[in-house]
Amino acid sequence: MVISQGAFAVMVFTDRWFMSQIDSVHIAAAMGGGVASFFCLSLFIGLISYGNALVAQYYGAGMYPRCTRVVSQGVIIATASLPLLAVTAYGMGQAFSHLGHDPRQVPLERIYFYTLMGGGFFHLVKASLATYFVGIGRTRVVMAVDVAGICINVPLSWMLIFGKFGLPELGIVGAATGTVVAQFITILLFLCFYLAREHRHQFSVGESLVFDRGVMRRYLRLGVPSALESFMNNGTFNVFLLLFQGYGVVQGASMAIVFNWDMVSFVPMMGLNIGVMSLIGRFVGAGDMTRANQVIASGFILALGYSGTLAVLFLLFRVELVDVFATDDAQFAEIRVLASAMMIGLTTYMMADAVLLIAGGALRGAGDTRWVMWTSTTLHWAMLLAQYFVIIVWELDPLVSWWVFVAMLLAIAACYWVRLYRGRWRQPERLARVMQE
C-alpha cells in the first residue's frame, strides 16, 4: 500500500513538475484546481473508502459473500452521487473568480478543475474496488494496478501537455486529461481481477450485484462520520489554501512546491494508514485484539522511522528541493526564499502526520469514526477561523499563517494519541455494536 499510494504521489508530483516547465502561474493553478476537485469529491470518497474497514471486518468474521456486497453498495453510492457532484462542480468552478486570485491563474484553475471533475465518477468507482482488495488483504493487486496506472498517466500527460507524438498541445488540460484516462484504465484492470473465475466463486460475486439493506445500513452508519470528517476537513483545507493563494502568485506557487514535497512523506504513509485500518478491521471481526496491538506497534515503528528520516533530509536540503521546481520567470527568487522557510514548518509536522495517520487508521478500523469526526473537524475549523483573522483581518505575514496550520496538525496528532492510549475504543461492548447490521 505504501508503493500504491506512492504511485499517486508520483502522479501529482510529475503533473506539477510539468507545470513548472511552463511558468509559476501554472504551478499555482494546478494546486488550486486539484485541491478544489478533491474537496468536491471528498464526501463520497470518504464514505466509499470506509468500505476498506467493512470488507476487512466481514473477512475477519468469515462472512465472504458480504465482502463483495460492500463493493456493490459502493458503486450504488457513486452512481447516486452524480447529480450532486454536477451541481457542486458548477458552483465551485464559478467561485474561482471571486477568491482574489491572480487573473492569469483563474481560467487555468477552472479548466483544470472541470476536467478532473468530469472523471469524478471513475475516481469513486476505482476507490470502491481498491478498498475492497485492501480489505481482503490482496494489496498486491492494488499495487500492481496503481503502478500500471502511473506508467500510463505520466507519459500520457507529458504528451498531452506538450503536444508530443502528434497529440495536441493542451497544456494544463492535458495534465488533467491524462489523469482521467489513467483512472478509467485502472478500473478495467481491477475488474480483470474482480471477475476472475476463482475470485467469483470464493466471494460469490454474481450474487453480490444487488442492493443489500443490512450492508448499506452499516456502510452509512459507520461510513458517514468518516465521510463528513473527510468532507469538512478538506473543505477547511481548501478554503485555507484559497485564502493563502490570495496573498499572490509567489505565495501560491511556494505552497504548491512545499505540498509537493509533503506528498513524498504523507501519501506513502497513507498506505500505512490504509493497511492499519484494514488489519484492525480484520482482527475486530475475528475478535483478536492481541493481534490488533501488534498492528498498531508495527505501524508506529514504520511510520515514525520513514517520516523521521525524510524530515532530516528535507531540513538539510530544503533549498535544493525547492530549486527542483525552478522556473525562468523573475518571481522565482522570491518563491525560493518563502518556500525554503515553509519547508522548516513541513519538517516540524511530518512526525505528527505519522502519529495521526497510524492512530487514525486504528480508530477508524475499529469503528470509532464519530469521535474521529468530531475531534478532527473541530480543530480544522478552529484553524480556519484563526486563518481568517491572520490573512484577512490582520493581514499578517504568510509565514504566520503557515505556522498556524502547523500548530493545528500537532494538536490533532496529540488528541489521536491520547484517544488511542486510553483505549475506550476497544471496549468489547463498543466492538460488538460496530459489527451489528
UniProtKB/TrEMBL annotation:
The answer to keyword NADP applying to this record is: no
Q: Which InterPro entries match?
A: MATE_fam, MATE_MdtK, MdtK-like
For this protein, what is any one GO molecular function term?
A: antiporter activity
Protein name, as recorded:
Multidrug-efflux transporter
The family database entries (NCBIfam families) matched by this protein are listed as: matE
Which UniProt keywords are given for this protein, alphabetically ordered? Answer: Antiport, Cell membrane, Ion transport, Membrane, Transmembrane, Transmembrane helix, Transport
Q: Where in the cell is it found?
A: Cell inner membrane
